[in-house]
Design a protein that fits this description.
Blueprint (H helix, E strand, L loop, with lengths): L6 H4 L3 H4 L5 H9 L6 E2 L11 H12 L12 H15 L8 E4 L2 H12 L5 E6 L3 H10 L2 E6 L1 E3 L2 E3 L2 H6 L5 E7 L11 H14 L2 E5 L15 H4 L6 E6 L12 E4 L4 H10 L9 H11 L1 H25 L2 E3 L7 E6 L5 H12 L1 E2 L1 E2 L11 E4 L4 H15 L4
Parallel strand pairs: 1-13, 3-4, 3-7, 7-8, 8-9
Antiparallel strand pairs: 2-10, 5-6, 9-10, 11-12, 12-15, 14-15
Length: 394
């Protein structure tokens, strides 16, 4: 029977059969059911959502805030986000340019659905979270990957290489800054150069700034919004997940030009209708009361970052950059070029789940990502187990 005659092949859209594998998700499935696994493969810490956020949400539930709400989020939350940008970023972003979504991932899907179609091209700066590349695949646009370069264990962006990848089919430049998984962060000058280049050619910039507050110097990373005009072809995606331990809440937002509001609303209307109503009150509490919690988390992550760097340096056979942002160590082990095989070995022999670099782009094969946003005790235990596997030969 030929492929076109297979009944199951005809039940679903062809694009679903062509989706590339997600090695990170495959490792999670591989580890499922195994005993005593330390999970450092997902991008979240082990701190629960703080009480003040949960209490605000519980109050909203008790107050009957359980009905449909506005498609792009409540006026209260949109205004709270506008105030947040004024307070933290010193930027005047009116609430009409802020679109609340059901998760940062949904924000990315809505943005792509509004901008690209089959035949369009997205130029993505990699390494990058695989789910973003998968989201592009679902639109039937194509992706051209432009990798950061790792020079002397430092990730850098070659702007000439990026600009050379742009052609007449390019609709979007997709960038994550600060970067998951590398911790690289674009400078204000790089952001300006990219936006100027895109503006001259009528190309959209789609910036994932979910890790914008996870920096170890200052209070936030440079943002495209710092150098943008209000009518630029720019969509900035963000999320409540990382900064306030709200990964399971699935709540995010987009900042865009005024002209994008109606189009994002149209797409959202037929996607999720509206974000959950009561959780938005928890999000407001996070924005207005969450700075001390975030600072406490950053102190832990800062110490953990230094711990990982020190431990890997002592092992002697690990190469990694010194991340200035995010809570990831993106590393490679000398003599271990197959990151899938090594990740499986670490599951089987060490009981530690990490994410293989091949999940983040074609140039990231050989690397492994470790999330260090956990307790010091849990991290030390994981590093002890990892060392026992990767340093066996010594």
């Amino acid at each position: 029977m030929s492929k076109q005659d297979k009944p199951n092949e005809r039940k679903f859209r062809p694009v679903l059969h062509a989706l590339t594998a997600n090695p990170g998700a495959e490792m999670m499935r591989y580890a499922q059911g195994k005993d005593d696994i330390i999970t450092l493969g997902q991008g979240e810490g082990d701190a629960p959502t703080p009480d003040f956020i949960c209490d605000a949400t519980a109050k909203a539930l008790k107050d009957g805030k359980t009905f449909y709400g506005p498609v792009l989020g409540s006026h209260e939350l949109r205004q709270s986000l506008s105030d947040y940008y004024e307070r933290i970023y010193n930027l005047g972003i009116p609430s009409s340019r802020v679109f609340v979504t059901s998760s940062g991932s949904t924000a990315m899907h809505l943005s792509l659905a509004a901008l690209v179609d089959k035949g369009d091209e997205v130029v993505a700066i990699t390494p990058i979270w695989k789910n973003l590349l998968g989201a592009v695949e679902l639109t039937q646009a194509t992706t051209r990957q432009v990798s950061l370069d790792c020079i002397n264990n430092e990730w850098v962006l070659d702007l000439d290489k990026l600009f050379a990848a742009i052609n007449e089919r390019t609709k979007i430049i997709l960038i994550v800054t600060p970067s998951n998984p590398t911790g690289w962060t674009a400078s204000r000058e790089e952001l300006r150069a990219i936006l100027d280049f895109a503006r001259e050619r009528g190309i959209w910039v789609l910036s994932d700034e979910v890790y914008g507050r996870l920096v170890y110097e200052g209070i936030r990373a440079p943002s495209f919004l710092d150098v943008a005009k209000e009518d630029d072809l720019l969509l900035v995606v963000n999320s409540f997940s990382k900064s306030w331990a709200m990964t399971g809440w699935r709540l995010g937002w987009i900042v865009g030009p005024h002209e994008a509001e109606a189009k994002i609303r149209d797409v959202a209307l037929y996607n999720k209708l509206c974000p959950p109503t009561f959780t938005q009150y928890g999000a407001i509490a996070a924005l207005e009361e969450g700075e001390e919690f975030l600072k406490s988390q950053l102190r832990l992550w800062h110490a953990n970052r230094d711990l990982v760097v020190e431990r890997f340096k002592k092992m002697g056979n690990v190469q990694m950059s010194y991340p200035k942002s995010t809570f990831y160590a993106f590393f490679k082990v000398e003599g271990e070029d197959d990151c899938i095989a090594l990740t499986k070995r670490l599951i089987d022999e060490a009981g530690v789940l990490l994410s293989p670099g091949s999940a983040f782009g074609k140039e990231a094969t050989g690397y492994i990502r470790l999330c260090f946003a956990v307790s010091k005790e849990r991290l030390n235990e994981a590093l002890d187990r990892i060392e026992a596997v990767i340093c066996k030969h010594e």
